[in-house]
Structure formats: C-alpha cells, structure tokens
Write a structure and sequence with these properties.
Shape: globular
GO molecular function: 2 iron, 2 sulfur cluster binding; metal ion binding; oxidoreductase activity
Organism: hydrothermal vent metagenome
CATH topology of the largest domain: Rieske Iron-sulfur Protein
Strand content: 25-35%
CATH class of the largest domain: Mainly Beta
InterPro entries: AioB/IdrB_ssu, Rieske_2Fe-2S, Rieske_2Fe-2S_sf, TAT_signal
CATH architecture of the largest domain: 3-layer Sandwich
Number of helices: 2
Protein name: Arsenite oxidase small subunit
Structural class: mainly beta
Bound molecules: FE2/S2 (inorganic) cluster
Largest sheet: 6 strands, antiparallel
Number of strands: 12
EC number: 1.20.98.1
Length: 186
C-alpha cells in the first residue's frame, strides 16, 4: 500500500522528516478518508483541509520524462467513467500532495466543483492556478489542494492521489467528490 519510489533522490526526499507533511503515503492518505481533518503546513496556509478520499483503480497516466513544466496533460479518471477527465501538471514549485523530486507534480479534475464547468485550457502558469471557470469564474489554487481562490464554488477541486514507480506516474485515488457523482464510488 505504500508509495513505491525508484530513485535515491526521490526516496530521500520522501522519507525526510521535514517533508512528511508534503508527501503523504498512500496509507496515510487513505486513512484520512471519511472526513478526517489534516493540517497543511504549506507556506501561508493556516486553515485545515478536509480530506475525503476514495481509492480508485491504479492507472498509469504519464511518464516523468514526458512531463514539462506548466504544460497540463489530460487523462480519463476513474478509468470506468469516460465523462470524468483530470489533468496532470508539473507546477515547478512545491504543492500539497505533489510527487516527484520537487513535490511539484499534481493532478486535478477538469470539472469545476461548483456546477461542473469545463476547466480544460484554463491553467494559469504565473499563478499555478486553474480557472477562471467559464461558467461562474471560480479559480482554484493548485499548490494548495485545489482550494478556491475566488468565484462561486465552495469546494476545492478534486485532487488525484499520485504514485511514482519505475519513472511512471500512476493515479490511485481521488480526494474530494468529482462533479456529477453522488458518492466517491468507482
Ligand atoms: S461551474 Fe465553475 S464556477 Fe460555476
């Protein structure tokens, strides 16, 4: 159930006590499901982040070598729901639940948490944000678990939990309710 790490550099970063809050193991992520509250210590973030997690099938979504900074790549997830698309992006700066050497690779739903507006193509590299949503202008902070920066949405953008193995990136679960679903069911 634990994250599989290939390179020594990734291992040392992942297991460094000072970085424990930035790279949850899959086990701790799942233990946080069901409404547990976890405090993030990312710079400037004082509020609690409510984690409602669901484990989905483990799916390869990208290779580390193919990801380029600030260039999001879309993928379908969960695999049995073609209406649900996510994007993975290498932010170039540390982010909550980020993976990789810099903990800067994250993935989120393309469906706005407010009313499902399509967020595809709205990535803002200068702010590491997604949006504004074309329907009601919500913008989400990708460095802080998809928290709302501004707009009508009240829920964070659902974030995919990622794992790295043999240079590949896998999605293994989702934190938050994907728009259009009644529950976090696979
Ligand atoms: S659907 Fe995105 S802000 Fe309303």
């Amino acid at each position: 159930m634990d994250i599989k790490i290939e390179s020594e550099s990734e291992l040392s970063e992942t297991e460094s006590p000072g970085n424990e809050h930035l790279c949850m193991s899959r086990r701790s992520f799942l233990l946080a499901g069901g409404g547990a509250v976890v405090l993030s210590t990312l710079p400037g973030m004082a509020s609690a982040v409510k984690l409602v997690a669901k484990e989905y099938p483990r799916v390869k979504i990208a290779s580390l070598k193919d990801l380029k900074t600030d260039q999001p790549v879309d993928f379908s997830y969960p695999p049995n729901n073609p209406m649900s698309t996510f994007f993975i992006v290498k932010l170039g700066e540390e982010a909550g639940m980020g993976v990789g050497r810099k903990k800067d690779i994250v993935a989120f739903s393309n469906l706005c948490s407010h009313m499902g507006g399509p967020l595809n193509g709205t990535y803002k590299a200068e702010h590491k944000a997604m949006g504004p949503c074309p329907l009601h202008l919500t913008t989400f902070d990708l460095t802080r678990h998809g928290m709302v920066i501004s707009g009508h949405a009240t829920e964070s953008l659902p974030q995919a939990q990622l794992e790295i193995s043999h240079g590949n990136i896998y999605a293994v679960g989702v934190m938050g309710l994907i728009y259009g679903q009644h529950d976090n069911l696979a």
